[in-house]
Request: fold
Amino acid sequence: SSSSKSPDHTYTDYGIYTVRLVVSSDKGCTDSTQSTLRVHPQPKAVFTYNDSIQCLNDNDFVMENYSSIPEGYLNSFWSYGDVSFSSNSVGRHTYKSAGKFTVRLVARSPFGCTDTMEKVSVITEIPVIKFTLDTNQLCLRGNEFKATNNSTYNGIETVDYDWSATDGFTKRATDFDHNFMNPGKFEIKLVGTTTEGCADSASQMITVFPQGESNITIIDSVQCSKGNDFTFGNESRVDGARFALMSWDFGGVFIDTVFSISPNQFQFPGVGKYDITLITTTEHLCQDTSKGS
Reply:
């Protein structure tokens, strides 16, 4: 109650209320009137995220609507902060650029009563992963593949770079440096991941060529000068490739031949000890050397 001429009053609950006004004169004369008013239910806007921080490349924000009202029904109005709107009960939105956006849910009753809830969506940049190899083909012996990381990232988070190769090699580093133990084709892969888990990757193929193994056999290593006729066997072998050239050095006399398992004959011009060298060269220019005397 109030004795004010024009009172103000706030109701704490919805419902139908009767307001009565009684006026009295100083002579004790009275009169009264009454009126009925209705206080409509107040909606409560509530929503939750599937994840409030997501990566730009695959962001998909789903907002579950838990808004309520004691009586009646609600209409929902979403504003996603990037000039996009929706009147669906459940909010769902994909952003096209990185940044922070305010998501606003307005719950409205048929009588115009409203409530609002706001949350912030964060869309983080993804790294752009790329790298260059110093070469993509090497012979097995002494191979060392190096790659330079040319990745870019425009965000504010830290990026971890993880290298791997299909021979089982893994390493967290900016650049790549690795020796392969066996010939074959291998994939080198670089994955860049931000502290928020936003990732990109790039990969390239490399080839390690078979080395080949040079192997000389000497049938009779000591002979008389007159009429000497030495026979040199070639037991060189290579797996996964073929020999393109055999380079013989008969103590200063050089002869190039194609690969053959047939013995090579050679006569030396004079008395002495001669060092014999065979350099094998594969079709991929991988070389190996063996010696005999």
Q: What stands out?
A: The mean pLDDT is 90. The two ends are 125 Å apart (CA to CA). The longest strand covers residues 114-124. Residues 22 and 32 are 4 Å apart (CA to CA).
